[in-house]
Amino acid sequence: MDAYDTETGLRRLLAQVPHFSDLPGDVQEALIRAAHLRRFRAGQVVYLEGEPAEAVFLLAQGWVKATRVSCRGREQALRFLHAGELFGDVAVFSGVPYPATVTALELVAAWALPAETILRLSQDSAALTMVIARHMAERVLYYVDLIEDLSLCKVEARVARTLLRYAEEQNGRWLIPRQPWTTFDEMAVRLGTVRDVLSRALRTLENEGLLKVERSGIFILDREALARRGEV
Q1: β-pairing verdict for 108-114 and 55-61
Q2: Ramachandran region of residue 210, left (φ > 0), alpha (ψ -120 to 50) or beta?
Q3: Residue with more model confidence, 214 or 113
Q4: pTM for this model (two decimals)
Q5: pLDDT tens track for 181-223
């Protein structure tokens, strides 16, 4: 049995979600009692854009992506989410269908919190209402940054900003580890461009000595210079 399969595991997971660790114990316990675990294979849809918003999901294992598809079939990634992140809440609390399609990028486990339960609890608990408000405010700020990236930045700048946002420090070096599902096509969707344009942008930044693309991931060689390339 995996650690997140238990109530104790779910309790630890809730503590990883920003602000949720501050909830009163009785509210956390009510959420835990209502939650049920769902599993998805790589490529399986968690929910489709336009479906009724029946649950808020707390990701326990794996990565998912939230996307919209244009009438011409072009896919635009809105968010890539990993364990400890919440999704589906915008639709549940605004009373509209899910605004995007969420797809598992690998083996995924997610706790589903029924919409009816979380809405009722939020009416009874000012603390939960404030937590949700803070979470949605952070989501708004994320989308403000995304709009800025897509509308005001050239591809090289979008690449630079994204790499710096997701970089991790390992053994004194900054890198973006390559996930099994990370392909140039998937990265292009994430950045609102196409594979060939992304490849050229990475080569440009690599030729400038700002980063190094390797099989294990993308290593950042000069963070300050890469940050300047990411300026609007």
Answers
A1: antiparallel
A2: alpha
A3: 113
A4: 0.78
A5: 777 777 787 777 778 888 899 999 999 999 998 888 899 999 9
CA dihedral sign of residues 141, 201, 168, 182: positive
At 143 the three-state DSSP class reads helix
Which token pair is 15? 């503590």
| Number of continuous H segments (helices) and E segments (strands) in the chain | 9, 12
pLDDT of residue 71: 75
Specify the length of the chain in residues.
Answer: 232
CA distance 46 to 39: 9
Count of other CB atoms within 10 angstroms of residue 191: 21
* Cβ atoms 177, 222 nearer than 8 A: no
Name which of 18, 32, 6 is nearest 121 in CA terms: 32
